[in-house]
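Note to self: the last two entries modelled the partners one at a time, which told us nothing about the interface. This time every component goes in together.
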Amino acid sequence: MPSDTSLADRALDALGPRVQAFRSAVTTAGEEIRAWASRHQGVRQSHTDVTAAELGPFAAGRIDPGRFATLLVPVEDAPAAAAAVLERAGPVFDDITTSPEVHRASVPPGGDLRNVVKEALDTVGRIFGVSRAVELARTGRWDPDRDAELLAGVPFRRWNRAERRLAPPLVVDVQPEDLLTAGLGEFLDGLVTIVLVVEGPTPPAPLARLVTPGTWVVQTADPADLDAMARSPHPGVALLFDAERPQQARFVHDPDAGATSGARLTIQHLPDHPTVGRGRRAPFWVEELDHLEALAATSAVAAVGGGLGPGAGSGPGNGSRRTGEPRDASSGGDDTTAPPKDPADRLAAWLLAQTELGGLTPDRDGGAAT
Amino acid sequence: MAMKLPTVGETPAADREVRVRTVSDLSVEVVSDSGEGAQKCGQIFGAVSAKMGNGVWTVEIIPAEVEPPPRSPAGASGIRIRLGDTEVTNWGDETDVAVAFNEQVLLGRHRLGGLREGATVLLESMWKTHPDPDIQTQYRAGLEELQEAGYRIVEVPMEEQCLTVVDNPRRGKNMFALGMLSWMFERDLDRVREQIAQAFRKKAAAVTERNHRLLELGYAWAADHLGERWVVPTMDEDRPHLVMNGNEAVALGAVAAGLELAAMYPITPATSVSHMLGDVFHRFGGVVHQAEDEIAAAGVAIGASYAGKCSFTITSGPGMALKTEFLGLAIMAEIPLVVVDVQRGGPSTGLPTKVEQSDLLAALFGQPGDAPHVVVAPATIEECFHVMTTARRVAEALRTVVIVLSDANLATGVAPFPRPELLPAWQGGPPEILPVPDGMAPYQWDPRTGVSRRFLPGQAGGEHTVTGLAHDERSKVAYDSSINERASAMRSRKLAAFASTLLAPDVNGDAEGGDLLVVGWGSTKGAIEEAVSRARAEGLSVSSLHITFLSPLPPGLAQIFSRFRKVMTVEINYSDRKGDPFVTETNRRRGQLSWLLRGATLVDVDCWTRVMGEPLRPARIVEALRDHMPVAELAAAGAEVAEL
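The predicted structure of the combined assembly is written out below.
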């Protein structure tokens, strides 16, 4: 049974700016595709009317649109293969723009939370797939044999950085028994934002294991606490309870709040240890709670790293730092590796951390190994 | 003589009469030291008045320095709000009602002729009992000068009143003043509260609450103590309106036009375009890039445009000078670019906060070498919004630079205009990136129009070297001298072709002809047309014409001019006056449009220009029209002959 829909709706409201940004981008892209298609598929209005509209009201009475149209470079018809792609792309844009499922999902009882999130993101991946297909078609590089699979969508693991930053927020109804969050880590990239809405008692700190330096993490019973996450330039995951319960931890991890996990974490409520640990996965619960406490206890340590700025090297794959241990921003996220001492090496390491290879560590042969 | 009011707390006289006057047109000024919020007060008052259905035009009074010395006549910072029962198109002549936070800034306005004789002045009275005896002396002397000028002065204990709500009245006196004005002009307090909340939406809720209390305090004080109210009838307007200033209109117009990147470097009075864009652009996929300097800003915009984005750069006169070389590159490489120049007084640092129309010739001819491009000047705040769509389309269609000449009057002036019904077509389509047909060159100029297809980096078959060197169709460097001749002809032909699409401008008044035709451009349109209307009411045979496209000029000007006995431009730039020492007909430096029109039409176009650091006043233009009527000039010439 799904959770309280009003709570999920309120969560979605709080994520409004990101929903709006996604819908706006998709709508704009859809309109651009239609405009391009109409120019290139012979669906042309009177040249004068189109030109008058494109010149806008300021030109009315000042520029003769008919004469202006004669100055324009003629537009060629699109190749047939490109036209076919455009024809298939339009409905996908309409579908994604209007479908509420893009922002909502539900884990069936006994279902797999990770799979549900993955499928929801894969649905969104249809937009990115057809967008790539349209781009290939518009540039005359569309090869049906090679590229046809794009029209079925692009799975999350193949989304590029821009697509990950455009990802719409996702609100997922999930039952307490199915709240296994460890598998969500791989999705927390770009601006991916996942809100888990749960009815009933849950483990105390299931999201503690998802706390990484560049990820916004929040456990709360108040949807208003999601506002800041929706505005942040980081991926985020939230656990939204239907009520405040003593055994559920409430905390916020704000990546921009400081250089140490202690500075970034704000714990509003921490359950007493005796109240937990009696469930079937009691050790995990305790581990998560201990982990949260350890993160919060990390003393403020001056950030080292040549002033490369907060958040440098942060992001998925970087791992969390050890308690009380200073972290060099140039370390590319591998806290167990001593930071390079030479300034040039540090800069090179930092630059590497900004690329797709940021999560990789050079092996002894100079190759890349995860 | 100063009107003596009961001190606060005393019961006003029971028989106090409140005089209510209904007027069709009235101006209000709020002036203070810098940082006291007079402009915010006036902006809110103007916005509420517009929303209630008044015609409104506001002009900000900004000192040249960021923080001039306090209590100095030259440091007056404030705003004039002109209200009308119909559309208001300019800031008018003198002010009828002024609120001043000290007597020195008021003296500044008085000495510039900003206040109407008999104007009502609400003056902060705290200086009368200031601990510094010098200030007390200044206050008494200032009051005497103001009283002699015939103003109706009401001393108001603003500081004392505001201290009942806030610790620092410097941050709140403006809301008290807003309260007084709201009572005097019967503004809807709920609307004022809403507008305050909107204005301070980025501040803590407590700030808005405190401002509401100050507003109500000012309103109540005025209701208890003032004896004059004004009614400016409102218009019945069903169509929703927007209220904004010209820079905000440029910014939102850029969004509506589908522009994607604004590159700029802060410069008064253009910067607020980027502030507005900074608030909203990202929501529409746009990027505001603040570059390290003006030159870099132009370079970024050109680079983005070269890569296929729709981009523009924003600046003012000194920034235009710095961008000159890059604009030449865009013209030579035929990279579309929109440049917004919000003109201010100059040259050099000049009058950064004051209006002038002195960049016209620089915008037209400022590039070394032959660099044909389009120059267009919006005349109203509504046009500041819509011009961006046209500028973008023309720049892309012609592959050239379009300079949009706004100015400080439009930039900070606020006026309502009908809410635009946005069309997706304004945003045009994405740039063409289908493979280039075999053999097509990157500058395959149509010999008839000079227009060629725009190539984008990465476009299959479109590989070429882009260069600012003279080049041929294939973008190869021109070693053969005839190539430069041909390329220059093609770039120039685009302008001629575009000119062929322009329509002749309408004449305001008698299209058939008359004694005098006044020609203007840019933000002076409202003041000129109001002046012409008044002059015509006096029986003078005067008409006006406003030019929007300045490069290329619209067709038919010479024919229109030929129907009038005399043609004269009215502009906010410098010109020598006839009879000045050493000035002859030959060496006389004229208004910039006048110079342009004389060359283009071979008509002896005269000019009347002023550079007073303020918008033109209709009454002054009317005086100039009277003086420049052909008959008046003949009479003056006759008198000179008689004297001889």
